[in-house]
């Protein structure tokens, strides 16, 4: 069975039975297969099909499969499909990755990383380079970066809890990354840093060490000289606002919005194909309150491009309706 935009491209197909699904995986062999579990009643699935069509033009060796999740329950149950859209990525018949939700930028990233664009060796080297660049960006996201289990507000292991307490006790200004939220970062950062455990503390992009090292620095009085002291609130807000070219301050995160307005603005941004970063204001009450005054904008979500406030949901909706949103996000206007 063919659908709309598939007619002109052999690598866009639809599976309506478990046998068709298995046949497509077998036919693809070691090449990447992307399976979209969708529902005809969900408009976000229609949009993601359009994204897949564009990706299929760029990745002709990758097979893109569309499946009605409810029509093939045995497959949906096997792979624990509980919502749509959900994307599964296969190589050699084995699932290698997964993406839940209508996140066009994330889908594009995963396809680019996993797709076979040349020899397996060349692709592996390219993927490693891309991942190293991502790790380097994360490590340098703030002058002092802590990679931990959980957040600084809610540590999820004893070692992480101890190191957060030490840094706060010594008035150290730091940002954190929850390794439990990203398995790829969790595993690969250990190799990148040649440090096998967590938490890991970085200052100006350089590894300081784990809990034991931080304890030693604290006991010797060198911690304050090693790590940046807390800065003014205004400086902190400027740093956070400029953490990425496009920054969204919202309730929740990309994977789980925690209010209706945040959910709506995520759906709009995910539909642009432009990458963006988010900051969960529910995790930082200081930023939540101070940013409203700093920006002179009393509500959330708030969207910033290159450090400048664009506005909230209504402004973003207007930009979308006028056709200006993508150019604004890219800083072209």
UniProtKB/TrEMBL annotation:
<dbReference type="GO" id="GO:0051536">
    <property type="term" value="F:iron-sulfur cluster binding"/>
</dbReference>
<feature type="domain" description="Thioredoxin">
    <location>
        <begin position="1"/>
        <end position="116"/>
    </location>
</feature>
<keyword id="KW-0411">Iron-sulfur</keyword>
<protein>
    <submittedName>
        <fullName>Glutaredoxin 3</fullName>
    </submittedName>
</protein>
<dbReference type="GO" id="GO:0005634">
    <property type="term" value="C:nucleus"/>
</dbReference>
<keyword id="KW-0479">Metal-binding</keyword>
<dbReference type="InterPro" id="IPR033658">
    <property type="entry name" value="GRX_PICOT-like"/>
</dbReference>
<keyword id="KW-0408">Iron</keyword>
<dbReference type="InterPro" id="IPR013766">
    <property type="entry name" value="Thioredoxin_domain"/>
</dbReference>
<dbReference type="Pfam" id="PF00462">
    <property type="entry name" value="Glutaredoxin"/>
</dbReference>
<dbReference type="GO" id="GO:0006879">
    <property type="term" value="P:intracellular iron ion homeostasis"/>
</dbReference>
<dbReference type="InterPro" id="IPR002109">
    <property type="entry name" value="Glutaredoxin"/>
</dbReference>
<dbReference type="InterPro" id="IPR036249">
    <property type="entry name" value="Thioredoxin-like_sf"/>
</dbReference>
<dbReference type="Pfam" id="PF00085">
    <property type="entry name" value="Thioredoxin"/>
</dbReference>
<dbReference type="GO" id="GO:0046872">
    <property type="term" value="F:metal ion binding"/>
</dbReference>
<keyword id="KW-0677">Repeat</keyword>
<dbReference type="GO" id="GO:0005829">
    <property type="term" value="C:cytosol"/>
</dbReference>
<keyword id="KW-0963">Cytoplasm</keyword>
<dbReference type="InterPro" id="IPR004480">
    <property type="entry name" value="Monothiol_GRX-rel"/>
</dbReference>
């Amino acid at each position: 069975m063919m659908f709309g935009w598939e007619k002109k491209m052999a690598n866009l197909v639809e599976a309506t039975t478990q046998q068709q699904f298995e046949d497509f995986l077998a036919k693809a062999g070691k090449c990447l297969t992307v399976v979209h579990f969708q529902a005809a009643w969900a408009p976000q699935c229609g949009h993601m099909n359009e994204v897949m069509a564009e990706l299929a033009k760029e990745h002709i060796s990758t097979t893109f499969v569309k499946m009605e999740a409810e029509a093939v329950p045995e497959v949906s149950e096997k792979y624990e499909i509980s919502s749509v859209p959900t994307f599964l990525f296969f190589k050699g018949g084995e699932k290698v990755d997964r993406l839940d939700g209508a996140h066009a930028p994330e889908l594009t990233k995963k396809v680019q990383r996993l797709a076979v664009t040349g020899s397996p060796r060349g692709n592996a080297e390219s993927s490693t380079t891309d991942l190293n660049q991502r790790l380097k960006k994360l490590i340098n996201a703030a002058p002092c970066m802590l990679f931990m289990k959980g957040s600084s507000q809610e540590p999820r292991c004893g070692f992480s809890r101890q190191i957060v307490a030490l840094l706060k006790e010594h008035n150290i200004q730091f940002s954190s990354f929850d390794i439990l939220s990203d398995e790829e970062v969790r595993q690969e950062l250990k190799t990148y840093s040649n440090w096998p455990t967590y938490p890991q503390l970085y200052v100006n992009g350089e590894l300081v060490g784990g809990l034991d090292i931080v304890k030693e620095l604290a006991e010797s009085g060198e911690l304050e000289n090693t790590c940046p002291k807390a800065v003014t609130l205004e400086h902190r807000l400027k740093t956070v606002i400029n953490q990425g070219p496009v920054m969204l301050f919202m309730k929740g995160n990309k994977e789980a919005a925690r209010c209706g307005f945040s959910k709506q603005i995520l759906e709009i941004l995910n539909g642009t194909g432009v990458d963006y970063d988010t900051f969960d204001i529910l995790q930082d009450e200081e930023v939540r309150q101070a940013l409203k005054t700093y920006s002179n904008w009393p509500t959330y979500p708030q969207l910033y491009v290159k450090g400048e406030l664009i506005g909230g949901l209504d402004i973003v909706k207007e930009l979308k309706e006028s056709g200006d949103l993508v150019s604004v996000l890219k800083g072209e206007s």
